[in-house]
Amino acid sequence: MGPNEAVLVDVGGDPDAIDRCLTELHIKKIPVLLLTHFHADHVGGLDGVFKSRTVSQIRVSPLGDPPLTTEYVSQVLRDRNQSASVMTYPEQFEINGIKFTCLWPSQLILGQGSDANNASVVIAVKVAGIDILLTGDIEPPVQEEIVRTIRPINFEVIKVAHHGSKYQSSDFAAWANAEIALVSVGKNNGYGHPAPETISLYELTGSQVFRTDRNGDIAIVVRDSKIRVATHR
């Protein structure tokens, strides 16, 4: 990635928070912005991304659900004279040697949990010889479909699906086989995330678990093909 550039996957729920984060990281250019799905905690901060920054390309889930937040995204993009295009399996793109591969959705699985969650775009990222899996909020029906249809990759890092909710597939955790599992979750949230059984599941697969409610900001640093996890509260 070039100086002051970043590919951004989801934007949180608060425009001021994402603007502050990107400012602290000195990010001025976003070649690709991916919104995995349209729940407010993943797209609500969108307007803050465009403050003093350029966004070249915007990719989204194929399912415009829930309608209210989907319309919010559409309105922000209209106001900025931007447009978005859908991302689905097996699309790939590469930016400055970093490879992004869409593993899901290859179809829509409806009526088995949250339709919006299960339409999340799932991305495998290969950077500096390290494989990273970004899972959106996919639930067990999709997790199990990925296990059934995609060959194992043995990821070094996984972003645990749906903020570490209790709805996880043990087969999916074993399929990912990640050294490091990251849980993006708000402190003292009303959903009880992350579930203790989900933390145990990933620890039992051999993952070292880091969670934002306890560890604060988390950065994965790759040097000489070795991974270091940096945290900051």
Structural notes for this entry:
With 233 residues, this protein is an alpha/beta fold. The protein has 2 domains: 1-87, Metallo-beta-lactamase, Chain A, CATH 3.60.15; 88-233, Metallo-beta-lactamase, Chain A. It is built from 9 helices and 15 strands. The strands form 4 sheets. The chain has a 7-stranded mixed beta sheet. Helix 7 links the parallel strand 11 and strand 12. The longest helix is centred in the first third of the chain and has 13 residues, at 67-79. The protein is globular, with a radius of gyration of 17 Å. The relative contact order is 0.10. It holds the Pfam family Lactamase_B. Residues 3-141 form the Metallo-beta-lactamase domain. InterPro entries: ComA-like_MBL, Competence_DNA_uptake, Metallo-B-lactamas, RibonucZ/Hydroxyglut_hydro.
Spans of at least 5 consecutive residues whose pLDDT stays below 50 are: none
- Overall shape: it is globular
Number of discrete domains: 2
N-to-C SSE string, H for helix and E for strand: EHEEHHEEHEEEHEEHEHEHEHEE
Strand order of the largest sheet: 7-8-9-10-11-12-13
Euclidean distance between termini CA atoms: 26 Å
Global structural class = alpha/beta
CATH topology of the largest domain, anyone?
Answer: Metallo-beta-lactamase, Chain A
Q: Give the beta-strand count.
A: 15
CATH class membership of the largest domain: Alpha Beta
Query: What does the largest sheet look like?
Result: 7 strands, mixed
For the record, the CATH architecture of the largest domain stands as 4-Layer Sandwich
Strand content: 25-35%
Q: Give the integer mean of the pLDDT values.
A: 96
How many DSSP helices?
Answer: 9
CATH superfamily of the largest domain: Ribonuclease Z/Hydroxyacylglutathione hydrolase-like
Tell me roughly what share of residues is in helical segments.
25-40%
Radius of gyration: 17 Å
